[in-house]
Amino acid sequence: MTNQELQNIISNWSEGLEFTEENTEFLTLTVPSGKWHDIAVRLKENSDTAFDYLFCVTGMDWGENLGVIYHLRSTVHGHEMVVKVHTEGREKANLDTVSDIWRTAEMHEREIHDLFGIYFNNHPNMKVLILPEGWKGYPLRKDYQDDTNMIIR
User: Fold this and answer.
1) What pTM did the predictor assign?
2) How many CA atoms lie within 13 A of 76 on its CB side?
3) From start to end of the chain, where are the E strands?
4) Phi, psi (rounded to 5 degrees) for 11
5) CATH number for the domain harbouring residue 45
6) What's the rounded Cα separation, in Å, for the pair 144 and 26?
7) Domain count of the chain?
8) pLDDT (0 to 100) of residue 70
C-alpha cells in the first residue's frame, strides 16, 4: 500500500490528524494527544492498516512541549509509518499508554518517563527503569541542568 493510500484510509478516522512525509519514505502522522489511544487501536486492528509491530518509540523535547514518536510496521502488508504525539505543555506532561495495544511499548514508556518526565496514563507499571530512585530532573530535556557534569553535551 502506498503512503497516499494509507493517508486516504486513516484521514477519515478523526478530526485533527495531520500528515506529512518530510522527505522520507515513511508517511508521518501527527495525532492530538487526546485521540492517540483510539487512533492507535484502529491502526493495529483495522485490516487495511494492520500495524501489528511497534518497533521504535522515542521521547522528544520540542521546546514548548514534549512528545513521543512511534514507528509502526505491518508485518501483514509490509508498510510502515511514523506517528508523532505531542503533550500539552511541559509541566505534568502525560499521554495515554499504548502498552495495552503493543506490549513492547511498556518498557519504552518507562524509559521515556525516566528521561523526559512524560507520564503514561493507565500504564501497568510506571516505575523507575533506568535512573536511580530519587533522581531529580529529566536528563534528556533541553532545559535539564547537570550540575555534577554526569551527562556531557
Assistant:
1) 0.92
2) 10
3) 18-20, 27-31, 53-61, 66-73, 80-86, 94-96, 119-121
4) -60, -20
5) 3.30.460.80
6) 31
7) 1
8) 98
